[in-house]
Amino acid sequence: MDDSLEKIRKHLNSKLENQKLYAQTLLAIEEITTIQSSQENETMTGALVYLLAIILKYVPTSVLRAKFGAVLPMLEAIYEQHSQNQPMVRAIIDCMTVFLVAQDANMWSMPATKKYYQTLLILSANATPKARKDAQDAVTSILSQPPPPTTVHPAAAMTADFILKVLHQATKTNQQAAQQILSLLQSIVQFWPPFQFTSLCQTLLQLPRFNNIFLTKAAFDVFEELFDAQENDLDGDKLTELLTALCELKPAAHDDRLLPTWLLMISKAYPAYAKLNPILCATGLPTIFELVFRDFEQPSRNYNSMAKCLSTLIEYCVTDEMIHQSAGLGGIIGLLEGGLGIHTQPAWKQVMMVQEAVFRKLHRASSPLMDRCVTLLGEIRLSPGPSYKEQLDKTLGAAIAAMGPDAFLALLPLNLEPKENQVGRAFLLPLLKTYITNTNLSYFVDELMPLGDRLADKATRAAADGLQLQAKVYETLVNQIWSLSPGFCQLPLDLPQAFTETVAERFSALLYSQPDLRPTLTQALQNLVEKNDQLAKSDADDAHLLKAYGISKQEAQDNLAYMSNFAVNYLAVFFNVYSQIPTANRGFMGDVIRTYLTVTGPQDINDTFKKVLGLLSNALESGEPQQLQDTNTPPPMAQTMLDLAIIMIPFLDAESAQLLYNGTMTSLLDKEDAPLLQKKGYKILNHLMDVPNGQQVIAAHLDDLQTRLLEATATCTPSARKDRIKTIMHVVRAVDSSDLHFLPCILSEVVISLKEGNEKCRAFAFTTLVDMGNRMNQGGIIKTSKIPGMPADAPDAPATLREFFTMLTAGLAGTTSQMVGATITALSRVFFEFKDELPGELLSELLQTINVFVASNNREVVKGALGYIKVCIVVLDAEILGPQLDVLVSHLIKCSHQHRVFKLKLRHVLERLIRRFGYDAVAHLVPEDDKKLIANIQKRRLRAKRQKKERQDNDEDEDMEEDEIAHAHTAKKVSGFHDAYEEVVYGSESELESDDEHQPATKDTPANKKKGANGRGDTFIRDRMDNGGVLDLLDRSALAQITSSKPSAQRRTTAKNAFREDDTGRLVIDAGNQAAQESEEEEQQEDYYMEAMRSADGFVRDRRNRIKFKKGAKTDDIGDDMDVDAGAAKTPKPKAKYEKLGKEFRSKRAGGDVKRKGQSDPYAYVPLGKVIKKKGKQPNKITFTGRVKK
């Protein structure tokens, strides 16, 4: 064959055309074959490299090390052959990265390994953008994973040499490679060899001389990352020289590209310098501060970056020695004072940000260093600009918190009693309220309290003189002054000296006399105890506490001991005030009482509690009515004392807890005529069970408590049901396993409580059922003889889970549907909880029993049965559920015919069955008459799946954001249940799209587009024109006014709203002229469609789409709707309207037309065609005013 083909090739230059043609054809075929072969080889090679890059991530390290010598040469050969194929190059980079990361330290000493790594370094500087990015990521990944046990990668030195070489080779005409390598350097500077930081810095400092903005910015970015490095070889002298050189490279203030980067670099450099040598850093701080601050005097868009940089320098570089000695701060503070001058007014906001940072850093040393700044800020605050007012208030607030209100108000006095030439500064009171903390309480006692008293006297005199406005102003100022007391009482520095008996009595007197100040005063008194208690229990050491607050732990404990001297008297005051406040507004008093009980001695607490019990006993014996008529009045004394007793329970000893328990058992649980007292009695029992002393008392009287609870079953009021069920829950957990007769005795009450309207009551009932199941599952003995109605010689029964289900199923024979439904709900809950511990035959029996109730005629029973079935479908094994599938489907279909209200629930249950057993298995069991139902469910499922798949396929750009919002909303709805049981029973998790029928796609709502960003359609409220457009949402007919389509605005006039009404309800009839009515008609919105339909010259289309003109048709009522108003006369038929020709020339006071200045004569606009007489009969005549005259 080859010989024959060779003979043909020789004829390529033949003179005979027939021989030459065959030779040319053969050569063409051979060339095409060669090209196709090379293309196929390249495609196959690329595919294999892509596949290798994907699977190498999952290959064990040992395999990668073993195949390193075999695979890497092949990858290198492929790279050399296909270096222009960028997708293949990127895949080769990924493969080489995985292999190099897997090598150990010994392998990195081999020349071949270094060669392959050198290839990656070259690509990171010279490759195309995507390949270069992959190569840089590869180098970063390799250096970040050094082979153990080394901490610095063996290739770090080689990388540093390569990068420095590339940077040194940069010229004035070619900096591209240097710019690309700097992006790599920025990501690997943290892995840079510590001994080469000096040479790197020297090299980077040479780059700005090229005047390349991008190169300089990249160098600054590298410096920023460099100062974050944990280890380097830069000592104090070298770092000082480096910072000096960097300061010399500072860009101009108007340079928006380089200056922000340079400021960030300085923000990282000087804190690192402060860690290395704080003294030298503090010495150089004024220089760099002034260098940056001077840029505020020049126009720039970088003021915020400057302010952040200066604030960082103040925070990290100002030392405690500088603050104490005031060394080096004079120049900085002088600049800040000058920064509020007119030449820096555009940057006042940013200057104030820096001043705020200085106030917070100097803290109490701000006075007197920053006094001049405070004075200037106060002058600016008298007429602040809108651009910096918010920041000005923050800066003043920082000054208040730092130097204290006494020093601050000495510079900027309030002047609430202004004298001549004094400016009032009442605007400082809200700032003082917000920022006062950890200061001297004596200033409030000595200065502000007398000021408040003087203003209160002025308010009284002004009110007596009839100056109500002036009196109100003074009262407001008094309230604002006393509102400062919580801040002064928050960790005061002089508590024992300032809070004297006189001050304590003054607070008590105000609690009685000033109801409006009670929340503020109680908060102040509460801070005196709470804040000191928190500081005394703090984990910080005294050095930090003294620096931050000026108070040590021992001083905080001494303050608590000092406040305990006032505790007993204050408790008496608090109790009296508590009894004067309505129930809804007592929260703050309860909090302060609990706080002061923590610093009260045990004996004082017991004595106080006995007084409370005495008052409670007297109130109960007095027979005072317990029904509260007005919620704004204090409740009866008995209820108040019970509330106080509940507050005191955590602080009682065993003796007092015993007294409270006895009183509750004898006087409260049987108060059927006083529901609130009974409710508070159960609350007392619950609180006793939450504290150790109370638990001790309950354990000693547990049998008596069980008996009393059973006796009080019949007398329990609905309002006390929740607290009673909670008490039963505690008792169930506390009963001994040797005597569990209380469980079957109370079981029926717990079950029926599942139908209570109170959600918390239902939650406690469910929890109690689960606790009962756990106790029965743990084993024990049920003494049947103690159960009411059982004989005394009844044998004891063992406590088992099967026995518990037997007791529960007894409720299925209840006489009321509510009891049966509650029993089924209880069974579903405990079945879900203990499904893994129940035998299969019991599960099957329960399912078979509940199946019967699915076909019940009672909705209450069916509702519970459907919930049980849903739980079974989700958690029950198919071996148990499958044999009863036919009966279950039959009963569900029967239920669908009997109870239309459960249409959605039944659809979800059937859909769950389809998901569990398949459509064919379920559809086979459905009768022929109901095939449409199951087919519709399947159609919805498939449609929902298709739509879900379409959403996933089109999850891009805006659709992605919309889907995320919709999915988040759905997830929030599904995950809004308290536990897994509620999610199974109440959460459908259905694949069905919705309960509504599928709507066809329209122009505004296409099928492939969501209705809104949250996946829901728009909802509109239709205006109610009969009541002024206001919709009463509490009205039963409100739902009829809510629509999913935007209602059109219709302007109708009915007999009811034809005339307006005055304030007394009388009709006001305006005798307006015809011109006003016509102008109103012109203002109405034009509706061209309705105009065409109603016009005499309009047209309509018949069934065949033919146009028919409505010549001569009557236009009175075409398309109009008639408003029917009850009690009103029928709306009269409107008169025919005439077109007014030349109405713009009508006279306001005369009957004819007039000439107007600058306009044509009116007769020029009369339609002459209607005036010219025609032949024939002329029944109608048109006057020259345009009115048709018959």
Please explain how this structure is put together:
With 1190 residues, this protein is an all-alpha fold. Helices cover 60% and strands 2% of the residues. A two-stranded antiparallel sheet has the order 1-2. The longest helix has 39 residues, at 17-55. Mean pLDDT is 81; it is low at 957-977, 993-1017, 1049-1058, 1071-1086, 1112-1131, 1170-1175 and 1181-1190.
List keywords for this structure.
single chain; 1190 residues; two-stranded antiparallel ribbon; 55 helices; extended; disordered C terminus
Order of strands, widest sheet = 1-2
Tally the helices: 55
Number of E-type strands: 10
Strand content: under 5%
Helix content: 55-70%
Biggest sheet features = 2 strands, antiparallel
Q: Report low-confidence residues grouped into runs of 5 or more.
A: 957-977, 993-1017, 1049-1058, 1071-1086, 1112-1131, 1170-1175, 1181-1190
Q: CA-to-CA gap between the ends?
A: 114 Å
Which overall shape is indicated by the principal axes computed on the Cα atoms? extended
Average pLDDT: 81
Class of secondary structure makeup: mainly alpha
Question: What does the radius of gyration come to?
Answer: 45 Å
Oligomer category = single chain
SSE layout and pairing:
Elements: H1 2-10, H2 17-55, H3 61-66, H4 68-81, H5 86-101, H6 111-126, H7 129-143, H8 156-168, H9 176-188, H10 197-205, H11 213-226, H12 236-248, H13 258-276, H14 278-293, H15 303-317, H16 320-325, H17 329-338, H18 348-362, H19 366-369, H20 371-381, H21 389-403, H22 405-411, H23 428-435, H24 441-464, H25 468-482, H26 485-488, H27 495-498, H28 501-513, H29 518-536, H30 542-549, H31 553-578, H32 587-597, H33 602-622, H34 637-648, H35 654-667, H36 675-688, H37 692-700, H38 702-711, H39 721-734, H40 742-752, H41 759-777, E1 781-782, E2 797-798, H42 801-809, H43 817-833, H44 840-854, H45 859-875, H46 878-881, H47 885-898, H48 903-917, H49 919-923, H50 931-953, H51 957-974, H52 980-986, E3 1020-1021, E4 1042-1043, E5 1060-1061, E6 1067-1068, H53 1074-1083, H54 1088-1094, E7 1099-1101, E8 1107-1109, H55 1168-1171, E9 1181-1182, E10 1188-1189
Antiparallel strand pairs: 1-2, 3-4, 5-6, 7-8, 9-10
Helix pairs in contact: 1-2, 2-5, 4-5, 5-7, 6-7, 7-9, 8-9, 8-10, 9-11, 10-11, 10-12, 11-13, 12-13, 13-14, 13-15, 14-15, 14-17, 15-18, 18-21, 20-21, 21-22, 21-23, 24-25, 28-31, 29-31, 29-32, 31-32, 33-34, 34-36, 35-36, 35-37, 36-39, 39-41, 40-41, 41-43, 43-45, 44-45, 45-48, 45-52, 48-50
